[in-house]
Specification:
By secondary structure, the chain is of the alpha/beta class. The protein contains six helices and five strands; from the N terminus they run αββββαβαααα. It has a five-stranded parallel β-sheet.
Amino acid sequence: MKSPLGQYLKSREQAYFDQTVADLFGFNALQVGLPSWDLLCNSRISNRFHVAGNAAEVLAEPTYLPFANQSVDLLVLPHLLEFSNYPHQILREAERILIAEGSLLISGFNPRSLWGLHQWYRRGSGDYPWLGDFVSLSRLKDWLSLLGCDIVSVHMCCFAPPLTNASLMQRFEFMEVVGDRWWAKGGGCL
């Protein structure tokens, strides 16, 4: 997250999560993965926990979460599905621990974007984030509908191409505004 591309991604996603979690209420909020990146900082929910395999308040595997059935009001899964060997199990656990009207926020890389095209081009390089198995929006919707989850909204960001040069990235800043309006399903992250 220290590269210009990582900073670009982090600023876009942090802004989205800050705005979204501020309007969600409940008793328990949980972020699974990326413990160094607090996506719940703007949440009004008082009981906030971070779960990860290391360096978090709760040490656990995302495939087997140590929480009671229907005990979490807000669950955030940042870039977890594309880097797991068991994304279906993660979603089953999410559905199990969420209350009936709970909110599930998922972020991930979009394979049908400039970022997905770059991943295809860099396949086999072994670099993060290009080594992940990017999950398309239609595939994610299918998985969630099988679990009986309703999709309330979808937001995409990171419409600019994934460049490593900071000054060159600034030239594509206009794509964030234009992309959200004219290419709504083509953002690098959903």
